[in-house]
Amino acid sequence: MAETVVKDREFPATENGEAAVVARPRIDVLETDLELLILADLPGVKPADVDVRFENGELTIHGRRAPTNAGKRRALWEYEPAHYHRSFRLSEDVASDKIEAELKNGVLTVHLPKAEAAKPRRINVKGE
Amino acid sequence: MFINSRTLNNLWREMDGFRSEVDRLFGKQLIGTAAVAPALNVWEDETAFYVEADLPDVPPEKLDITVKEGSRLTLSGERRATDPPNAVWHRQERFCGTFTRELTLPAPVDADKVEAKFEYGVLKLTLPKSEAARPRKIMVKAE
Fold first, then answer.
1. Domain annotation covers residue B138
2. Fewest C-beta atoms under 10 Å: which of A21, B79, B100, B122?
3. How much is the pTM?
4. Is residue B83 over pLDDT 90?
5. What is the DSSP secondary structure assignment for residue B95, as one 8-state letter?
6. Is residue B143 part of a domain?
7. What mean pLDDT value characterizes chain A?
8. Is A34 touching B (CB cutoff 8 A)?
9. Candidate from A27, A39, A76 with C-beta closest to B42
């Protein structure tokens, strides 16, 4: 997982005053006739701590992860529990007022219904 | 030369490091390979070990947790691929398939009292140390 250390006003620094570690969540992108579907792995993030924004055709996912087991000694440390941030541009026209998102079992699902103009249409061919 | 648990843990760390390097080079996890092992963080206090692993969307019934020989913890499970009908895939980065991970804890645990729960896609295990492994305060007898 690509992890970068960034100093970001939106992510609180750790207890030691170090900059927060921010990871790019893994995503799946699917498309049906009616919508774009984005799934993102955000393990450890509570629904209240995730922020999904859609602005100028760009979707931004932002998740804060709270530290766990404070006060206990680390015995083995293989991954840095990180905050999540990722934004990407969508090529389809999206009905931005109808976007819905839910977070369940560490997976964020974002439904982006297509704008009327972007939905496929069957054109009737008139015969003589 | 003998291998103690510390050496094994270092080996795991090396392998995970190598895997994330591969992930970085290829931009995603190698989907469908059997070599996928979730990374673990372990904490401890005087009474127990606390193990956490990021396992988003792994249903509890598809997860097997075993403790063998007192201190060998094994996690294995499966994450099913999302498959909405009539959908076209544009990008697939999220891992799906089976995984197995083994870890030897530094001290034996009480296998009957292990507790496991999922919280926001994170598996959290509490493994109480066996009586013999708990620290004891030794009373020094006075004459």
1. no
2. B100
3. 0.75
4. no
5. -
6. no
7. 85
8. no
9. A76
